[in-house]
Design goal:
With 817 residues, the chain is an alpha+beta fold. Among the domains are: 27-75 and 84-148, Immunoglobulin-like (Sandwich), CATH 2.60.40; 717-816, Immunoglobulin-like, CATH 2.60.40.1180. Helix content is 19%, strand content 29%. The protein has 13 helices and 53 strands. The strands form 11 sheets. Strands 2-3-4-5-20-17-16-13 form an 8-stranded antiparallel beta sheet. Helix 4 (333-342) links the parallel strand 22 (309-312) and strand 23. The structure holds alpha-D-glucopyranose.
Length: 817
């Protein structure tokens, strides 16, 4: 399938000139000549004519804008969900002095110091009085008037680490890296390749246990040199537009969680997904014809391997025309989908942006007013799967509305969710190609001078490239929401920009069936998580090539507790279903999926929490343990919420592995009940059939008996899994699993040996039937439920005790150990 090809030389030369940041005409902003207080912040006119505006937009968020021309653009951003309002500032000093100090009038503690000469420069002090961001006087804020580039450099402490930057095929901390933000279709990307599909110019810095964050809201190609060129500084900038960045000071504690809360308050949070989308998903490029889809669905049910979702990749269409069905392979899609629904499956279809240029294709004709145009004003055409296509301009509100309305037919047929691919946008080169090529080139997209509407800020593709995919996902999300207001849309996108989480889940594109890629999936997914994108997954087994039985099995385990769990594989690979490799692999894959179904109530609760807090369900260790230096660069383990520690095996032939237990907590082996104290790395057994999994002492997690799909699970009672050993607790969020109806919360408190459960008086959802205590050393002396001693069975292999609960109401359970 893969084939190499070369771009014309001129294009390459033009591109190189564009991406090289040739320091042709950099000019620093120069000294401050005037200071003005406006409604949107404090403005500094500089000797170069550039203007800088500094504003406090939340008690712990500073916004800096620099316009090289001196005139600010309309304040419009695709990333921002809630437009920030400037808070009142106290300004001490003026242009004649050397320093001007800005303070929030609310006493939040953030202080911004402006040095007026020889060049305007900023220092931001956090609420604790510590400097967090200091412009490097060696490299003042600058712009290039000839090509519009903008840049700023900050002084860097040698020990400062950086996380986030969206989807990066890089280790967990991105210090010492140079990263580019330019959405790129990069099939089979190797670890280290940059950029890939998504652009999220946001990071969280960590030093001495304290954090701050920076978000560069600029949709042009941008870059971050995090101490690679010069360890004592980091630099970020963009090829055009304003320098427009936010500094999140992290509040008084300077906790990473505060930074992410503030960033997601600005750029929005992911809505609660439909429950089915969190369950196991099976995909393939492509399951065709319809009989194959039926066979796959039936095999899941026959083998009793839980699954909720089947994907239809491009093969279902008629000549790859979007919103059509192949009359030959899918003659009766409605019947197919009805039957799949009856078996408890949901169906997701792929929908790419390219609309086949075919005058006989009604959608192509209907879209005439909505396509991207070339600089010369013609409809832009490029080749993708259907051959020559036109492309909706998703930065045009009417184009989005039109495209969104196209989902009506598929929804009526019974399609449940939508997968937007190729939306970097990626195109085939040369245009005669009928297959994508493996060459990784940032110009495998529209010409940079193509025209976009930009929601009323018309501009070039160079400006809007990075938001094209996100705006496609938005068109899908908004279209489906409008057509099915009683349901929660499920959208999956490959490309995105900051704020993409408001519309869509994200998967990490065309990874490879290698152990390296399995290992890479963890820093990639946690990196996305801490960039505000909580609903993420990687293709299990690796998209390209065929994994060994062992690799697929380990990947199933590793992905079992990631937010999205989906097997997907390329057209030219061997079949890839949980049963493909026979025994013992089939049983181990089933067990991994069953583990997910057991923990779905916990995952769902975490997603409900995320809507409130912005904290992602999937967390890197440092996020919860910022003061634990040993946790700061752990990339082969993850946390699900704060209570589960997952340490997958990511090397061939390994049957044990070292696990680092974060400091300050006690951890209990999920399977054996063994205890581990935090702050140490310990080698644990990891035979092929075991995913090393640990629960934090003090946790109370909602779990479920295994069901074959979420509809079946809804009929079963819940179990609360309790890890005694520290005070704490947890809660359970429940609702109908879709739609926007009522919700219910059960709260659990752990104090010593006592568990207190608060259950709503009228339970509308799954009731809690029992408690299951993990990690008990021996048979408890007594177990009392609501004051009454009961006999509770102790399992000697798992060290668990199950305690049945009365049907309703608040209740106390005491386990004397
Ligand atoms: C792209 C996608 C992949 C999909 C294929 C065919 O390569 O990344 O997931 O299967 O296109 O649609």
């Amino acid at each position: 399938m893969a084939r190499r090809t070369y771009l014309p030389r001129m294009a390459v030369l033009a591109l190189l000139a564009w991406i090289s940041n040739a320091p042709a005409a950099w000019q620093t902003v120069g000294s401050v000549v005037a200071v003005q207080q406006g409604a949107d912040g404090t403005e500094f006119s500089t000797r170069s004519g550039a203007r800088v505006r500094v504003a406090l937009v939340a008690p712990d968020v500073v916004r800096v804008r620099m316009s090289p021309s001196g005139t600010f653009e309309r304040d419009f951003s695709y990333a921002v969900a809630t437009p920030p309002q400037a808070l009142p500032l106290r300004v001490d000093g003026n242009a004649a002095g050397e320093k001007i100090v800005l303070r929030g009038a609310d006493g939040g503690g953030v202080r911004v110091e402006i040095t007026t000469r020889p060049d305007f420069s900023i220092q931001v002090y956090a609420g604790d009085g510590q400097p967090i961001l200091s412009d490097d006087p060696q490299r003042p804020m600058a712009f290039d008037a000839t090509d519009g580039a903008v840049e700023i450099s900050e002084r860097r402490d040698a020990h400062e680490l950086y996380y986030g930057f969206g989807e990066k095929a890089l280790p967990v901390s991105r210090h010492g890296q140079y990263m580019t933000m330019w959405n790129s279709d990069t099939p089979g990307y190797t670890p280290g390749l940059d950029p890939i599909y998504q652009s999220i110019p946001f990071f969280i810095a960590l030093r001495d246990g304290k954090s701050y964050g920076v978000f560069l809201d600029n949709t042009y190609r941008s870059y971050f040199d995090m101490g690679k060129t010069e360890p004592s500084r980091y630099t970020f900038g963009a090829n055009g537009g304003e320098l427009d960045y936010y500094v999140f000071t992290g509040g008084r504690e300077r906790a990473p969680a505060n930074v992410l809360r503030a960033y997601t308050a600005l750029t929005g949070r992911a809505p609660l997904p439909p429950l089915w989308a969190l369950a196991y998903q099976q995909s393939r490029y492509s399951y065709t014809p319809d009989t194959k889809v039926r066979e796959i669905a039936q095999t899941f049910r026959d083998k009793r391997i839980p699954a909720d979702v089947i994907y239809l990749d491009i093969g279902y269409m008629d000549g790859y025309r979007i919103f059509t069905w192949s009359p030959h392979d899918f003659p009766d899609p409605k019947k197919l989908l009805d039957d799949l629904h009856a078996q408890g499956f949901h169906v997701v279809t792929i929908v790419d942006p390219g609309v086949k240029r075919d005058e006989n294709f009604s959608i192509y004709r209907a879209g005439k007013d909505f396509y991207v145009h070339t600089a010369a004003g013609d409809e832009l055409h490029a080749a993708v799967w259907p051959g020559m296509c036109a492309f909706p301009d998703f930065t045009h509100p009417q184009a989005r509305a039109w495209f969104g309305s196209l989902y009506a037919g598929f929804l009526d047929t019974g399609v449940d969710g939508f997968w937007n691919d190729m939306n970097e946008p990626g195109v085939f080169v040369p245009p005669e190609s009928t297959q994508p090529v493996l060459v990784h080139d940032p110009m495998k997209t529209f010409p940079l001078d193509a025209r976009h509407d930009g929601d009323g800020e018309p501009g070039t593709h160079a400006r809007y490239h990075n938001v094209y995919g996100m705006q496609m996902a938005r068109a899908t999300f908004e279209g489906v929401s409008k057509l099915r207001p009683q349901q929660r849309p499920f959208v999956l996108t490959r490309a995105g920009y900051a704020g993409v989480q408001r519309y869509s889940a994200v998967w990490t594109g065309d990874n490879d069936a290698t152990w390296d890629h399995l290992a890479l999936s963890m820093p990639m997914l946690t990196g996305l998580s801490v960039s505000g994108v909580p609903f993420v997954g990687a293709d299990i087994g690796g998209f390209n090539a065929t994994p060994s039985a062992e690799l697929y099995t380990r990947w199933m385990q590793a992905a079992a507790l990631t937010p999205m769990m989906r097997t997907h594989s390329a057209i030219d690979t061997e079949p890839r279903e949980p049963w493909t490799y026979g025994e013992p692999y089939e049983s181990i894959a089933r067990a991994a999926i069953e583990l997910r179904y057991r923990l779905l109530p916990y995952l769902y609760t975490l997603f409900a929490d995320e809507v409130q807090s912005g904290f992602p369900p999937l967390r890197p260790l440092w996020f919860e343990y910022p003061r634990d230096v040993a946790a700061s660069q752990v990339g082969d383990q993850y946390l699900l919420g704060k209570d589960l520690l997952v340490a997958p095996v990511v090397h061939a032939g390994q049957t044990k592995r070292r696990v680092y237990f974060p400091r300050g907590d006690e951890w209990i082996d999920w399977w054996s009940g063994a205890h581990f104290s935090g702050g140490k790395a310990v080698e644990v057994a990891a035979p092929l059939d075991r995913l090393p999994l640990f629960v934090r002492a003090g946790a109370a997690l909602p779990t479920s008996p295994v069901a074959q799909n979420v509809a079946e699970a809804a009929k079963l009672p819940l179990i609360l899994t309790i890890a005694l050993g520290a005070d704490g607790g947890g809660h359970v969020y429940q609702d109908a699993g879709d739609g926007h109806g009522a919700a219910e919360t059960i709260a659990v408190e752990l104090r010593g040996d006592r568990v207190h459960i608060e259950r709503p008086a009228t339970a509308h959802f799954r009731r809690v039937e029992a408690l299951e205590f993990v990690g008990l050393a021996r048979v408890p002396r007594t177990v009392r439920v609501a004051g009454k001693a009961i006999d509770a069975a102790f399992d000697v292999t798992t060290h668990r005790v199950r305690v049945p609960l009365p049907p309703a109401g608040n209740v106390d359970v005491v386990v004397e150990r």
